[in-house]
Design a protein that fits this description.
The complex is a heterotrimer of chains A (183), B (244) and C (366). By secondary structure, chain B is α/β, with parallel strands linked by helices. Chain B contains nine helices and nine strands. Classes of the chains: A alpha/beta (183), B alpha/beta (244), C alpha/beta (366). At the B-C interface, strand 1, strand 2, helix 2 and helix 4 of B face helix 3, helix 4 and strand 9 of C.
C-alpha cells in the first residue's frame, strides 16, 4: 500500500489537523507515514495545505508530484491542485464552498457540501472531518477507529471538548461516502 | 627573617608585560590578592578579554578562558550556568565591554548573572594603537579623531555604570579611581566586594576602574592620574551606583 | 516491541539531545527551528540541564563556548542567518579544540531570505564559514529518525575529535512529521576532560586559548588540527547507497533531496534506466573515495541540491575528471518534485520529459 493525499483549503479550516489525524492513525496501525506542511509561495494569502504519504514500505520522497487524492476545502486551492492529481485519482470537493471541476473526466470526483453538513451537526468548522470521514471510508488508508483514537493526540488539550463533534462529523462523512459506494 | 610582602598566590610567576605606569598590573594584583584572601584561587574561572589584557591568562593562577572580543560576559555565563558553585569573573576593557560587547554586558547584567565583572575604562584602544574608544572624552585626541572627539561626528562617551544601574538585575555596581592611596584602597575593597557578593550568592556585580594609558595618552604616569582626577572623573563620576 | 512516536525532525533533535546527555542548550529564536528552543526550555531543566535563551546568536555560541570550556556537553541551534552570526564563536571553539554541537535548520537565502527549505549553507558549513583553517564534523540527517539518532553521534564525534560537530538540516527534515523510534540504544562514552577550566584544584591552572603569537606554535596547532581532520576522513566518513551496484547514473544528494532522489531512482528503474543514489551522511568528511571508485568503474553522476550548486563541487573534486558530473538544483525555498528530477534524469538518457499532472493549458476552470 502506498497512498499520497493532499489536503488543501483556507487557514482555519483545519487542514493541518486533518492531515495530522491521518498521520497519527497510520502510526497506530504501524505503517509508515510522512506529513509535510505546505512550503512555498502558496502559503501566502492565508491558504493552507499539507501532504500525507502513507505506505507499507519505507517512504522516499516526502514531496508528492501528483497525489492519488485531493481533498479540497475551497475553490482557490481546488483550482490550484486539481490539475496535479494523478490520472484516474480521486478528488473530494467541499461543494459548500467550491464548484467541482469539469475538466478531470479521468478522476473520480466526489461532491460533498461538507460545510453545510457540519453546520447542521452544530459547527461549520467540522467540515474538514466530514471530508476526512468520506475519504477514509472510500480509500481505507486507515480505519475510522484509528482516526478517532488519534484525536486525543493530535488535538491540544484545550480542544478536547470538540472531539465528540469531530467524531460525529467524521462518521457522517463516512456514512455519506458509504451511501455513494452502494449507489 | 619575617616576610612582610610577597607576590600574591593568585598570580603566576610570569612578569607583567604591561607598559610602565599602566594600571592593568595594579588591578591584576588586586584581583590576585582578593582570590588569595577569599581562598578561591582553586575554585575560580577567569574569562579574559581582547585588548591589552589579552595575555591575562599568563598572569592569573586560576583557570583561565580567553574569550572573543566583547563576548566575555556570555562566555562567563556559559561557565557559571553549568558550574554554579565556582567563582567566575570577567575582566574587560572599554572597547571590549562598552563597544563590541555592549549587548553581552547589558544582558548579563539584566539577567542578574552571578558573575563578577572588572571593567577597565581607560578611554582608548591601547593595544591597537590609541584609536577612539566608546568612552573617549569629548575633545580627547586619538588616532581616529586626531583633532579630538567631536560629538557631531562620533557622539558622546558611554556611561556604563549609569546605564546598568537602570536595570533590576545587578546587585552591585561601583566606579572607582585608583589614582591615590585612598583610591587604591577603595578599588581593592570594591573588587573584593564584587567577588564576595558572588560567593554569597548575590547577583551581577561590576566594578568600573578608571584607568590610564600613558603610552596612548602621551603623558607620564603621574600626569595620567591627574587627568583621571581632573577630567575623566567629571564625565565618569566615581561612586556606588547599585548596592543591594 | 518499540513504540514509534509521530514527531517533527526538530522535535527529534531535542529528544536526541537528551539521549546524548546534553548538559546545556543556548539559543535564540529563528524560524524554521523554533520548535527546538521551545521544547528544550522544558526538556533541559526536566533532565537536570541548563536552558538559556541568549540575547543574540553571537552570545548563544559564546555561552556554548563557556559551557564547553567547563567540560560540559553544550549545544545551540539556529537557522542560516543566525548561523552566519555564530561563525566567530565556531572558529574560536574549533581553535580551542573544544567539543560542542550546532544544529542548522537551513532556510532560503542569501540575506534574510525566507523560512523555506534550502541547502545553500553547504559551503559555509564544510568549507570554513568562520575564519581560519578549521572544519566541522558535519552530519546530514534525511529523516526524523536520523535527527534523533545523530544527536548522540554528533556529541560523541565532537568529544572524540575535540571539535565542533554540526547537524545540517533543511526545513523539510525539520518540519515534516514522521514516526520515530525513540529507543535508547546509545553508548554514551565518558570522555576525560582534564583540560576543562573548572577550577585549578590540585593541579596547575588550565588555560583555554586560541591566541598564539609565535607563528610556529600557531602552525603546530594547525598541523594538529589537520591531522585530526585526516583521521576523521579515514574513520568517520559515512554514506548510504541505493541501487548503485549496476548504476550508469548515480544521483548524489543529502537531506530531503536524497529522499526525493530515492523515489526518482525507483521511477527511473521502472522505466529501464540504470540509476542509483549515493547519499553522503557526513558532509565533512565527504565520501570522496567511494565516489571516485564508482567514477573509475564508469558511472556518471548528477548532484541534486536545494542550492545553486555547492556540494557538486566536492563530487567533481572526488571524480577528478574521470566522469561526467551533472547538476540540478532549485534555490530560494523552491522544492523540486520527484517528476522535476525524473525529467532531468530522463533528459540525461536522451528521453523526453513526462508530465505527472494534467496538461497545464487546461488548468483553468473557467
Amino acid at each position: 500500500m502506498h497512498h499520497e493525499v493532499r489536503i488543501a483549503g483556507m487557514g482555519g479550516q483545519g487542514i493541518m489537523l486533518a492531515g495530522q489525524l491521518l498521520a497519527y492513525a497510520t502510526v497506530i496501525e504501524d505503517r509508515n507515514v510522512v506529513w509535510f506542511p505546505a512550503y512555498g509561495p502558496e502559503t501566502r494569502g492565508g491558504t493552507a495545505d499539507c501532504t500525507v504519504i502513507m505506505s507499507t514500505e519505507e517512504i522516499g520522497s516526502p514531496v508528492s508530484s501528483s497525489p492519488h487524492t485531493l481533498i479540497a476545502m475551497n475553490q482557490l486551492l481546488l483550482d490550484k491542485f486539481a490539475p496535479e492529481v494523478r490520472r484516474e485519482g480521486l478528488i473530494l470537493v467541499n461543494t459548500s464552498l467550491a464548484k467541482a471541476p469539469d475538466y478531470r473526466k479521468d478522476c473520480r470526483i466526489v461532491e460533498i457540501p461538507a460545510t453545510d453538513i457540519a453546520a447542521e451537526l452544530g459547527n461549520a468548522k467540522a467540515a474538514n472531518m466530514v471530508l476526512l470521514g468520506a475519504y477514509v471510508q472510500m480509500v481505507k488508508p486507515v480505519s475510522l477507529d484509528s482516526i478517532e483514537k488519534s484525536m486525543k493526540e493530535a488535538l491540544p488539550k484545550r480542544n478536547h471538548s470538540f472531539i465528540p463533534l469531530n467524531v460525529a462529523a467524521l462518521m457522517k462523512g463516512a456514512e455519506i461516502a458509504a451511501g455513494m459506494d452502494l449507489g | 627573617m619575617q616576610k612582610v610582602f610577597e607576590r600574591p598566590k593568585g598570580l603566576t610567576d610570569n612578569e607583567f608585560a604591561y607598559c610602565p605606569g599602566c594600571l592593568h598590573s595594579v588591578v591584576h594584583r588586586m584581583i590576585a590578592e582578593v582570590m588569595e584572601e577569599l581562598d578561591i584561587i582553586q575554585n575560580t574561572v577567569c574569562v579574559c578579554p581582547v585588548g591589552c589584557s589579552v595575555f591575562m591568562y599568563e598572569y592569573m593562577a586560576c583557570d583561565v578562558i580567553e574569550a572573543a572580543h566583547g563576548r566575555a560576559p556570555a562566555v562567563a555565563t556559559g561557565v557559571k550556568r553549568v558550574l554554579p558553585d565556582r567563582v567566575v569573573f570577567a575582566y574587560q576593557g572599554d572597547g571590549d565591554l562598552a563597544s563590541i560587547g555592549t549587548a553581552e554586558i547589558i544582558h548579563a547584567a539584566a539577567r542578574g548573572e552571578q558573575l563578577s565583572v572588572i571593567f577597565i575604562n581607560n578611554a582608548t584602544y591601547g593595544m591597537t594603537g590609541g584609536q577612539m574608544a566608546p568612552t573617549t572624552l569629548i575633545g580627547q585626541k586619538s588616532t581616529t579623531c586626531k583633532m579630538g572627539r567631536d560629538p557631531q561626528i562620533s557622539g558622546y562617551p558611554i556611561k556604563i555604570c549609569e546605564m546598568l544601574a537602570t536595570l533590576d538585575g545587578p546587585s552591585y555596581i561601583e566606579r572607582v579611581a585608583p589614582t591615590s592611596p585612598a583610591g587604591l584602597v577603595k578599588t581593592k575593597k570594591a573588587i573584593k566586594k564584587a567577588f564576595q557578593n558572588q560567593i554569597d550568592g548575590k547577583r551581577f556585580s561590576m566594578v568600573e576602574v578608571l584607568s590610564n594609558c600613558p603610552q596612548q595618552w602621551h603623558m607620564n604616569p603621574i600626569d595620567t592620574f591627574k587627568f583621571i582626577e581632573d577630567e575623566v572623573s567629571k564625565v565618569f563620576p566615581p561612586g556606588v551606583y547599585v548596592d543591594r | 516491541m518499540t513504540t514509534r512516536k509521530l514527531i517533527k525532525g526538530n522535535i527529534a533533535i531535542c529528544h536526541g539531545a537528551v539521549a546524548a546527555k546534553c548538559d546545556a542548550f543556548f539559543g535564540y529564536p529563528i524560524t524554521p527551528q523554533n520548535e527546538i528552543p521551545e521544547l528544550m526550555s522544558d526538556l533541559m531543566p526536566a533532565n537536570g540541564g541548563i536552558f538559556l535563551q541568549a540575547e543574540s546568536e553571537i552570545s548563544a555560541i559564546s555561552m556554548v563556548y563557556g559551557a564547553a570550556c567547563a567540560g560540559k556537553r553544550a549545544m545551540t541551534s539556529s537557522s542560516s542567518p543566525g548561523i552566519s552570526l555564530k561563525q566567530e564563536g565556531i572558529s574560536y571553539i574549533a581553535a580551542c579544540e573544544l567539543p560542542c554541537v550546532i544544529v542548522n535548520v537551513q532556510r532560503g537565502g542569501p540575506g534574510l531570505g525566507n523560512t523555506l527549505p534550502s541547502q545553500a549553507d553547504y559551503f559555509q558549513t564544510v568549507k570554513g564559514g568562520g575564519h581560519g583553517d578549521y572544519k566541522m564534523l558535519t552530519l546530514a540527517p534525511w529523516s526524523a529518525q536520523e535527527c534523533y539518532e545523530f544527536m548522540p553521534l554528533a556529541f560523541d564525534l565532537a568529544d572524540r575529535y575535540q571539535n565542533p560537530a554540526m547537524i545540517l538540516m533543511d526545513a523539510i527534515v525539520g518540519q515534516m512529521l514522521e514516526p520515530v523510534d525513540l529507543h535508547n540504544n546509545f553508548e554514551i562514552c565518558d570522555y576525560s576532560k582534564s583540560w576543562a577550566t573548572i577550577g585549578a584544584r590540585g593541579r596547575a591552572h588550565n588555560i583555554i586559548n586560541s591566541l598564539w603569537i609565535d607563528p610556529e606554535v600557531m602552525e603546530n596547532l594547525n598541523l594538529r588540527m589537520q591531522a585530526k581532520y585526516a583521521a576523521a576522513q579515514l574513520h568517520e566518513t559515512r554514506y548510504a547507497e541505493y541501487r548503485t551496484d549496476d548504476a550508469e547514473l548515480i544521483l548524489v544528494a543529502y537531506g530531503s533531496p536524497a529522499r526525493i532522489a530515492k523515489t526518482v531512482v525507483d521511477m527511473a528503474r521502472d522505466e529501464g534506466m540504470a540509476v542509483g543514489l549515493l547519499r553522503p551522511i557526513t558532509l565533512f568528511p565527504f565520501p570522496s573515495a567511494r565516489i571516485a571508485e564508482y567514477a573509475k568503474n564508469g558511472s556518471r553522476f548528477m548532484a541534486l541540491e536545494m542550492s545553486a550548486g555547492q556540494m557538486v563541487e566536492d563530487v567533481r573534486l572526488a571524480v577528478n575528471g574521470m566522469a561526467d558530473v551533472a547538476f540540478y538544483g532549485r534555490t530560494g525555498g523552491v522544492v523540486p518534485t520527484p517528476t522535476d528530477i525524473l525529467n532531468v534524469v530522463r533528459a540525461s538518457f536522451s528521453k523526453p520529459p513526462v508530465f505527472s499532472s494534467y496538461p497545464s493549458e487546461r488548468r483553468s476552470v473557467k
